[in-house]
């Protein structure tokens, strides 16, 4: 309830024209951006710096907006003459990452669940997936041995279709609702700070284009960002693309399968070259490649690039995506074998754990960042409020 009370106090303060108090992390971002605004060496690196130059001071809403606009590429840190060990101690990626994690908890819905962002780590994510898988295994074993229960190759002979829908639909629906309510609260706060103008079709198209391309992981010059040292690399962008599009393809496979089932009366499982199978296979392989790559890059990341406290949450999300994709591919390979029922329980447990933690884990950063990019595309089309020319 603490987050709800804090948001209520902030809303009352805004309504009364008062200055909303900032946390130490938010104050630190404002301090660093004030220095950056005087220097402007990094103005061409990403969307953060052109957006920064439209401000002379940085209130709470501005800080939240810019923190989620930041893609944590690290380019500004490696180019900065005021970076540690300089006495100014300017480290924009790290300062932004700390506030970004705070905003996920601040805008979480229901507010009481915001603290889950701090506890949703690697061990919890994997333990939840394995625990749910064990529960499903025990459910199957109440009807007989699990080894060999899937010899017929029919998933619904193990878990009826209506039972799976009854289990997964409410969890997925809640995840979508929670994420939607969270980003709604975020937009309500940052919209007045980003001109207050409504999103046009052109702004929405530009934001969508930037999201789908991961435009700001190219370092501003196309050579990539940084991960372990001063060397430019496109690895983070590529692994994010493998993961992002792999997830979308898997989701598309499930969606097409749902249409097949309810619209055409074609129940799963499906065989090649059916569309659900093609989408799922390509998406699963892409997810495995992307998550393995992101795990390696995350473990090797320079400690000054991000907030170390959020690493368990990051790794937990990566691990869940990997478990979902790998178990799905293994389930395809082992269909009709003695191991099919066991692998089905593992896959369903991983999917359920992913859905359950979706609103309170790393997945939120993509939703909030997309919202920030939309507000940037809107704001840049408005007259510059400080009269220093257009972006």
From TrEMBL:
Tell me yes or no: is Phosphoprotein among this UniProt entry's keywords.
Answer: no
Q: Which Gene3D superfamilies match?
A: Transmembrane di-heme cytochromes, Chain C
| Lineage: superkingdom | Bacteria
The membrane spanning regions, by residue number, are 122-142, 162-183, 242-263, 275-295, 315-334, 340-360
Question: Which UniProt key words apply to this protein?
Answer: Membrane, Transmembrane, Transmembrane helix
**SUPFAM superfamilies from the UniProt entry:** 4Fe-4S ferredoxins (SSF54862), Respiratory nitrate reductase 1 gamma chain (SSF103501)
Name of this chain's protein = Tricarballylate utilization 4Fe-4S protein TcuB
Q: Which source organism does the UniProt entry give?
A: Ottowia beijingensis
């Amino acid at each position: 309830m603490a987050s709800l009370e804090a948001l209520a106090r902030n809303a009352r303060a805004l309504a009364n024209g008062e200055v909303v108090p900032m946390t130490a992390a938010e104050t630190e971002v404002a301090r660093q951006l004030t220095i950056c605004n005087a220097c402007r060496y990094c103005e061409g690196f990403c969307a953060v710096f052109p957006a920064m130059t439209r401000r002379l001071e940085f209130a709470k809403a501005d800080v939240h907006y810019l923190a989620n606009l930041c893609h944590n590429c690290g380019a500004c840190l490696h180019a900065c003459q005021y970076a540690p060990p300089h006495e100014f101690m300017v480290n924009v990626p790290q300062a932004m990452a700390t506030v970004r994690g705070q905003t996920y908890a601040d805008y979480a819905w229901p507010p009481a669940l915001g603290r889950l962002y701090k506890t949703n780590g690697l061990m919890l994510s994997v333990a939840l997936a394995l625990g749910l898988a064990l529960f499903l295994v025990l459910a199957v074993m109440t009807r007989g041995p699990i080894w060999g229960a899937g010899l017929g190759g029919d998933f619904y002979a193990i878990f009826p279709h209506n039972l799976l829908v009854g289990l997964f639909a409410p969890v997925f629906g809640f995840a979508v609702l929670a994420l939607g309510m969270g980003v709604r609260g975020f937009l309500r706060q940052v919209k007045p700070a980003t001109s207050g103008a409504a999103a046009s079709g052109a702004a929405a198209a530009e934001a969508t284009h930037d999201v789908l391309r991961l435009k700001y992981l190219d370092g501003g010059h196309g050579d990539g960002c940084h991960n372990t040292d001063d060397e430019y690399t496109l690895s983070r962008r590529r692994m994010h693309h493998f993961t992002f599009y792999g997830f979308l393809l898997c989701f598309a496979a499930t969606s097409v399968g749902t249409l097949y089932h309810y619209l055409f009366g074609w129940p799963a499982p499906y065989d090649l070259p059916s569309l659900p199978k093609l989408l799922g296979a390509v998406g699963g392989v892409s997810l495995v490649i992307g998550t393995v790559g992101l795990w390696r890059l995350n473990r090797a990341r320079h400690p000054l690039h991000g907030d170390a406290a959020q690493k368990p949450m990051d790794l937990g999300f990566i691990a869940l995506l990997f478990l979902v994709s790998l178990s799905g591919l293994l389930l395809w390979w082992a269909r009709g074998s003695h191991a099919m029922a066991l692998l089905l329980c593992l896959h369903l447990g991983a999917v359920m754990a992913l859905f359950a933690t979706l609103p309170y884990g790393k997945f939120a950063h993509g939703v909030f960042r997309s919202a920030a990019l939309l507000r940037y595309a809107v704001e840049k089309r408005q007259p510059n409020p400080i009269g220093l020319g257009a972006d």
